[in-house]
Amino acid sequence: MKRKTLTLVCLCLAVISCKVDDFKAAQSYQRVEFNVPDIPFYPDDEADTKSAINLNTSPLSFMWEVNDTVGIFPNHGSQVFFSMAKGVGTNSASFDGGGWALKESSSYYSYFPLVGRFYLDPRFVPVSFNGQKQSNASNPIKSARFYLASKGDSNDDGALTFNYNILNVILNVNCTLPAGVYTNLTLSVESNLFTTEGYFNLYSQTPAIVSTKKSSSVSLALNNLSLSADGTLPLYIMLAPVNLNGVTITVTVAESTGRKYVCTKVPSREYLAGKRYGLTCSSFTEYQAEYPDGVDSSDVDLGDDDEVITIK
Fold first, then answer.
1. What is the pLDDT at residue 20?
2. How does 60-69 read in b/e, with b if 16+ C-beta sit within 10 Å?
3. Residues 6 or more apart from 233 whose CB is under 8 A from it?
4. With contact defined as beta carbons under 8 Å apart, do 134 and 140 qualify?
5. Nearest partner of 149 among 104, 199, 190, judged by Cα
6. What is the 3-state secondary structure (H, E, C) of 204-256?
7. What is the tens place of the pLDDT at every residue in 105-156?
8. What φ, ψ does residue 141 adopt, rounded to 5°?
9. How far apart are CA 206 and CA 276, in angstroms?
């Protein structure tokens, strides 16, 4: 599997619990590397048979952005953070530790994105799948909730390498819709299956998301994503690993004029961490609101009694 490599330049030696004399004697890593794997794609059954739908089946690449920051914990002590220095929008980036160095005598664990708590317990790094947003399709996996974790491995050449594990699922919902401006995607099931809040243990040999709160739905706010003509809108929503094999999912896409487009899907697999799954909605039912004179569509909450129009 192809991996993306990032390099951290280690600066002067400094650890809060050590004396200055200890810094001089300590052996530090000359460089720190981060490997983020590409994300393989698994289409759904409909995508396998609908050749007219142009899906991007290539693996997705993780691309770093401005203000990205990684957290690093030693095996004993509090976390330090390394901020983006250069390499925005590329596969390779440099991070500045602001004077922190990593000693060869310690073990280290890294995660992303940084939780800004100096006394954060690495056994309970929080995750949330609330408040997801997508603004464009250029780097959709960074528009929502994306979680990485790894223990550092020492190399013979004096490098410390973090081979990140991707802890979340990427669900690629491809929606065939009429021209319009779209504002929201919601996935709903009958039971509380979707993790909305949880945590992972960074010190675990295989970090995994542990759910503390679940819901029957999860949403993705769309920043006015539009189609100028009938076409396919690729949407990306992040989930904690979940078994949806045989479960009916209601997919609802809201349009800026108040219309809602609804389809149902029944996946035939469990969704596993570190993978991107396709969910293709090529046939929707449209719920169209009728507004009294003087009432704007933004003031109306669509209910179950709206006019129903089926798109063929």
1. 34
2. bebbbeeebe
3. 174, 175, 176, 177, 182, 225, 227, 253
4. yes
5. 199
6. CCCCCCEEEEEECEEEEEEEEEEECCCEEEEEEEEECCEECCCCCEEEEEEEC
7. 789 999 999 998 888 999 999 999 999 999 876 556 665 588 999 999 887 7
8. -70, -15
9. 19
Q: CB atoms < 10 A from the CB of 49, how many?
A: 10
The two three-digit tokens of residue 176, written as one number: 């065939």
Structure confidence by residue, pLDDT tens digits, 51-81: 333 445 567 777 777 788 889 999 888 898 8
- pTM, entire model: 0.80
What does residue 311 show for φ and ψ, rounded to 5 degrees? -90, 125
pLDDT on residue 275: 92
Compute the half-sphere exposure of residue 115: CA atoms within 13 Å on the CB side of its CA. Answer: 25
Integer angstrom CA distances of residue 142 from 126, 138, 206, 238:
18, 10, 23, 10
The Cα 119–Cα 110 span in angstroms is 15
Note the pLDDT tens digit of each residue in 169-213: 999 999 999 999 999 999 999 999 999 999 999 999 999 999 999
Block residue for tokens 């759910």: 211
Give the amino acid at 77: G
- pLDDT tens readout for residues 25-56: 457 777 777 777 888 888 875 544 333 334 45
Residue 30 identity (one-letter amino acid) = Q
